[in-house]
């Protein structure tokens, strides 16, 4: 293995990890019938003259498995936050009690659970495609290095390295999908 020409596998791994992070974020946004504070992360409300995430307007808690509460700090913003939740497309009807907004999470029916598993599978496929794109970039770097005089043994070594990193990340995606689908189908 020559010391002059090396492939930056750390960069490839970092980029593949980025695809995994994006997948975990997408999975967190899927409503599984179980309460999660991350459900309200993407929701924003118009407050103090600008668009603000509602988790910056109050304390988000999960006091029980099917309930999310938001304790709004500014009493004047309770209606604004409630309206933002209604219009967010979460399909949850907020209930207000003073400055506390309660979000009861309804049970999912079997049909909706199956739809959500398909959505989760699509998210996982997007992550796999992103990982394969990073793999392709790595293989292109190897081809370029081969053209710059990398030995045949080094080419095989680096190709095996990139393949190993790719397989490891794809396996993690598959495992995450399996766990998420099991969580969605759990009654």
Top keywords for this entry?
187 residues, alpha+beta, Topoisomerase I, Chain A, domain 4, Gyrase A, domain 2, 2 domains, 4-stranded antiparallel beta sheet, 55% helix, protein biosynthesis, Ribosome_recyc_fac, ribosomal large subunit binding
State the name of the first-level CATH class of the largest domain.
Answer: Mainly Alpha
Q: What is the fourth-level CATH superfamily of the largest domain?
A: Ribosome-recycling factor
Query: How large, in whole angstroms, is the Cα Rg?
Result: 23 Å
Helix content estimate: 40-55%
Name the CATH architecture of the largest domain: Orthogonal Bundle
Span of the ends, CA to CA: 54 Å
How much of the residues is beta strand, in percent? 15-25%
Report low-confidence residues grouped into runs of 5 or more.
none
Number of helices: 4
Overall 3D shape: elongated
CATH fold description of the largest domain = Topoisomerase I, Chain A, domain 4
| Number of E-state strands | 6
How many structural units, i.e. domains? 2
Order of helices and strands: HEEEEHEEHH
Major pleated sheet: 4 strands, antiparallel
Q: What do the pLDDT scores average to?
A: 86
Strand numbers in spatial order across the main sheet: 3-4-6-5
Alpha-beta classification: alpha+beta
Function: Responsible for the release of ribosomes from messenger RNA at the termination of protein biosynthesis. May increase the efficiency of translation by recycling ribosomes from one round of translation to another.
Keywords: Cytoplasm, Protein biosynthesis
Domain Ribosome recycling factor: 23-185
Family: Belongs to the RRF family.
């Amino acid at each position: 293995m020559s010391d002059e020409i090396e492939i930056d596998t750390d960069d490839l791994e970092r980029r593949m990890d980025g695809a995994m992070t994006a997948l975990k974020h997408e999975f967190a946004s899927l409503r599984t019938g179980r309460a999660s504070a991350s459900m309200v992360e993407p929701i924003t409300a118009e407050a103090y003259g600008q668009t603000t995430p509602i988790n910056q307007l109050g304390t988000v808690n999960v006091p029980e498995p099917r309930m999310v509460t938001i304790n709004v700090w500014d009493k004047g913003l309770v209606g604004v936050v409630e309206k933002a939740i209604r219009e967010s497309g979460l399909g949850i009807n907020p209930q207000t009690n003073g400055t506390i907004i309660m979000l009861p999470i309804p049970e999912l029916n079997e049909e909706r659970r199956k739809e959500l598993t398909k959505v989760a599978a699509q998210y996982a496929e997007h992550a796999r495609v992103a990982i394969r794109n990073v793999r392709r970039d790595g293989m292109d770097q190897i081809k370029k290095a081969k053209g710059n005089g990398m030995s045949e043994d080094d080419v095989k070594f680096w190709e095996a390295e990139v393949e190993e990193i790719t397989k490891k990340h794809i396996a993690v995606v598959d495992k995450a999908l399996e766990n998420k689908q099991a969580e969605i189908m759990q009654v």
